[in-house]
Amino acid sequence: MKYVFGPLSSKRLGQSLGVDLFPTKSCTWNCLYCQLGKTRRFVTERQEFFPREEILFEIREALTVNKGLDWITFVGSGETTLYRGLGWLITEVKKLTSIPVAVITNGSLLYLPEVRKELLQADAVLPSLNAGTEALHVQICRPAEGLTFKQHVEGLVAFRNEYKKQLWIEVMLLGGMNDSDEALRDLAAVLKKINPDMVHIVLPTRPAPDQEIHLPSEGRIERAIAILSEVTTVVHPLKGNMDLRSAPDLLEAVTAIVSRHPVQQRELQKAMVDRFPGDDNKASEIMQEMLATGRFKLVEHNGEPYWVMVQGNTAIPEQGGLSRELPPLKK
Ligand code: SF4
Q: Residue with the nearest Cα to atom 6 of ligand 1?
């Protein structure tokens, strides 16, 4: 499938079918931690990158083969609200199914009334807020010229005032950048103004092109939860898992996910083992065959092997060497 991928599993959204609306990375920001690589050219004008009917057709097809879904999630290779037909797609998906719809967005275009209006029908919207000051926001998110922190916060506040469903703000917590008490208190003050239903703390656990990104320590994560909990409910999500049990075409399903973000070796192995219960060798055999196609490679990040595409995720660094051999599975 071209637009639909997964389902992926996470603590936040359970079994979620992903819908990607972009041909290549298209974003208003150039975050330090972005798994898609650097934003080579900012996109700030909304466009219909692909015909909306084609995307809807694929969602309809995917719904016939994927049962037990908890969410349909618009997310993918860029800033979701740049897709001009997003509101239409949400409306049409809701005519097809009662499965709730989520939109993951950086929130940078929420200052536009038409974007806020298009998102009103979603059941959950998950915008980003990584800093409580302009300086830190610019340092981490590196927005396109003309997109200010003030505008970002005003967009979030305006959306909250209009949107009565679930507003869950994502905070990417970066070691040594926004995990100090001072940065967290600034963030808490802005979150108080926005008044989201929840804050989800996420961590830079996957490889990104900028080597200066570090995981926060356990102590700083606990501190972030404590400080942000003073103003809202805070969720510290466990890592999600991939579910390949009902994928009609295994290679296509894995390609659809790995081309959008690196996948930890142990996560892929577990999904394969779940797909072939009682046949432990089968998972390893298939993964070896996949590496032999030359479309995938393994790179190391924080001591963990990850699967990336040989072409596609071109900005993903090859830290610790490139391999076509499967490392032993860590339990
Ligand atoms: S908003 Fe998302 S897609 Fe855009 S640069 Fe940041 S992490 Fe990457």
A: 31
The pairing of beta strand 241-242 with beta strand 4-10: antiparallel
- Dihedral over Cα of 91, 243, 105, 19: its sign: negative
Which of 131, 13, 137 has the alpha carbon at shortest distance from 75? 13
299 lines ligand 1 (CB under 6 A): no
pLDDT in tens, 32-55: 999 888 898 999 999 999 999 999
How far, CA to CA in Å, does 249 sit from each of 107, 188, 252, 254, 297? 34, 45, 5, 9, 20
**Domain architecture of the chain: domains with CATH:** 4-235 (3.20.20.70), 262-309 (no CATH)
What atom of ligand 1 comes closest to residue 27's alpha carbon? Answer: 4
Dihedral, 146, 149, 154, 157 alpha carbons, nearest 10: 140
Q: What was the pLDDT predicted at 311? A: 65
Q: Which of 20, 25, 27 should be mutated for ligand 1, with most atoms under 8 A from CB?
A: 27
Q: Determine contact, residues 304/263, Cβ cutoff 8 Å.
A: no
Q: How far apart are the first and last CA of the chain?
A: 32
Distance from C-alpha of 216 to C-alpha of 110, rounded to nearest angstrom = 29
Quick one: which of 117, 67, 85 has its CA closest to 19? Answer: 85
Q: What is the pTM of this model?
A: 0.79
Ligand 1 atom nearest 172 alpha carbon: 7
Which of 20, 38, 39 to probe ligand 1 with, by most ligand atoms within 8 A of CB?
Answer: 39
Residues of the chain with pLDDT under 70: 11, 209-211, 237-242, 246, 302, 311-331
Regarding the beta carbon of 31 and ligand 1, being less than 6 Å apart is answered yes
Q: What are phi and psi of 25, to 5 degrees?
A: -55, 125
Does residue 27 line the site of ligand 1, with CB under 6 A?
A: yes
Percent helix, percent strand, percent coil in the chain, to nearest 5? 35, 20, 45
Residue 326's contacts (CB-CB under 8 Å, 6 or more residues apart) are: 265, 284, 287, 288, 291, 298
